[in-house]
Amino acid sequence: MTQRKGPLAGVRILEIGHFIAAPFAARVLADLGADILKIEPPGGDPVRTWGAAVDGHSVWWSQHGRNKRSICLNLKAPEGVAIVKRLVADCDALVENLRPGQLAKLGLGDDVLRAVRPDLVIAHVSGYGMSGPARDRAAFGVIGEAVGGLRYLTDHPPGKSDLPPVRTGVSIGDSIAGLYAALGIVSALLGRTRGNDGLTLDVALADAVLSLMEGMLPEYGRLGTVRRPTGSTIPTAAPSNAYPTKEGRWILIGGNSNNLFAKLCALIGRPELAQDPRFLDNRLRVQNMDELDEIIAGWTRRHTAGEALARLEEADIPSSSVYSVEDCVADPQFRYRGMVRDVDDPLIGPTLHAGIVPEVVEAPGEVAWTGPAVGAHTDEVLAAAGIDAAERERLRAAGVIG
């Protein structure tokens, strides 16, 4: 294995995850230098079959599985469970997203794991959490997004459309839960240096999404207000919307501070609007949002997107076109910061990956390798754990490892 770089170099984490949430958490930590040992069943993580493929290999997997060492291991076999215990002895943390209680049914409950490694940090990621009446209900990220209130708010305003509430376009509930798990693991490892051994993290997809809902709960709790879908606007700031242009494209403009609003008014040739009683501050602008947006749209419709954006940038007003992936790839800022980078994947050939977030200036992470083949590191990892070649051959013949 190549020597890892990044602030988490030297930290070893066992991943018993599938699909998105726990693997996403592990990928974030791997990007920052952690040594991730990913346990995969025979056939591999099911996400390997998702999306477009080249020569039978998922293109998404190239990024989703990067910087991890893949171990193909049958956890339904007692000898597979025994191998996990041997690996745990040399790990700092474990992250998993099986159904609550499933790991214990396999013989790998928290008590068993900590009998091997007392200070092991264990992160459980599930739909509804490890406790409560919904604990055993099935859930994916989209369910967490619905239960957490996000899917309700990503709709058009009531009466504007009969289409179903739209989703964000990616599995944001899984990814947010994964980020919380990653943060929890790093926090627990820091706490371990201060004497807090064996911390357990319980991350629920529904909880993770609900925690993002800004003022939704306090507004309801104190005022009885039910926050409603607002389409492309937000109910707390104006102007902040998508506006049509001459050629039928959309651009985003955020001019919700008083200073920015005054500059925007001058730019569109309506400087008097900054002193209009309807628009004197953000609260009033929100109350009169429809009228204000129509005025601004009247200006954007007279210009192409390029013309409007050039003028907005010159006036230092936050603005953008709506980026497609082609725009992201061509963006010089993303390229300069390495957020769009060229990689050569042995399984699928040349492709693109997103960069490392956060960028740690003094100890940057890296894309050391792309998502590996199933079990690519089985022999390497098990040899380091003291399992010799003859024993590995026997285990492979018995279907315990792959």
UniProtKB/TrEMBL annotation:
This is CoA transferase. It comes from the Bacteria. PANTHER family: SUCCINATE--HYDROXYMETHYLGLUTARATE COA-TRANSFERASE (PTHR48207). SUPFAM superfamilies: CoA-transferase family III (CaiB/BaiF) (SSF89796). One of its GO terms (molecular function) is CoA-transferase activity. It holds the Pfam family CoA_transf_3. Keywords: Transferase. The keyword Transferase applies. The keyword Transferase applies.
